[in-house]
Amino acid sequence: MKRATRKKTRETRDKLLDAAECVFYEKGVSGTTLNDVAEAAGVTRGAVYWHFRNKSDLFGAMVDRVRKPIHDMIEEMADGNTEDPLGRLREKTLFLMREIHENEHYRKVMSVIFHKCEYTDAASEFLAYDREWQASAHDMIVRVLVNARQKRQLPDDIDINLAVLVLRVVFNGLLNNWLLRPEEFDLLEDSGRLYEGVFSMLRESPDMRVKSSSAHTEKTQTG
């Protein structure tokens, strides 16, 4: 009996998260109410509050359902036991692009994050949530690149902070443009070629090296 109850509870929660994806995607985060989500899920407003404290909590759970696997993949690449961190980084990045291209859940959530979430309040819980994720992602990618440097896949004097910035700009820029105008380029084919070029730049470009006057990189270069 308890097992059946737990299963029904999980199903209701998943139904609410699926509904939140659709309603946030259609109306935007600021234009969506919890009542909208309850109606779309076919449940009562009380059922929403049983699972989520407020709209911010619902938003975070919806995004975490997509971002948690991404977090776990980056953590695996950052592990010092990973022998080919750059190869894994390329492989997993292209896997994510394929998921966003083919998986409706990933695509809608990413569209909500990039284009449907209005950060109108500097104290917004939504903005705080995104900043926390960005800071965590930055730190994990630093560890991936430090691991790659230790494995001699990157030069000893690579500017780690600059390299992380390049990777984040490329990833976010690709998704932002494709989600807005998917007909303009082939996300899967073009992202593969682009990342080959980016990794070549990280390995070979003198502009990606630490400059003697670049004090801002000292902390990560010793990681």
Notes on the structure:
The chain has 223 residues and is an all-alpha fold. It has two domains: 1-52, Homeodomain-like (Arc Repressor Mutant, subunit A), CATH 1.10.10; 64-221, Tetracycline Repressor, domain 2 (Orthogonal Bundle), CATH 1.10.357. Helix content is 74%, strand content 0%. The protein contains ten helices and no strands. Helix 1 (2-27) packs across helix 6 (104-116). The longest helix is centred in the N-terminal third of the chain and has 26 residues, at 2-27. It is elongated. The model is unreliable at 214-222 (pLDDT under 50).
- Sketch the major β-sheet: none
Q: Write out the CATH superfamily name of the largest domain.
A: Tetracycline Repressor, domain 2
Helix content: over 70%
Low-confidence stretches: 214-222
CATH architecture of the largest domain: Orthogonal Bundle
Q: How far apart, in Å, are the first and last alpha carbons?
A: 52 Å
| CATH top level label of the largest domain | Mainly Alpha
Beta-strand residue percentage: under 5%
CATH topology of the largest domain: Tetracycline Repressor, domain 2
- The number of helices is 10
What's a quick, concise take on this entry?
The protein is mainly α.
Task: Give me some keywords for this one.
Arc Repressor Mutant, subunit A; 74% helix; 223 residues; 2 domains; elongated; disordered C terminus; mainly alpha; Tetracycline Repressor, domain 2
Ordered list of secondary-structure elements with their pairings:
Layout: H1 2-27, H2 34-41, H3 45-51, H4 55-78, H5 85-102, H6 104-116, H7 125-150, H8 160-180, H9 187-204, H10 218-221
Helix pairs in contact: 1-2, 1-4, 1-6, 4-5, 4-7, 5-6, 5-9, 6-8, 7-8, 8-9
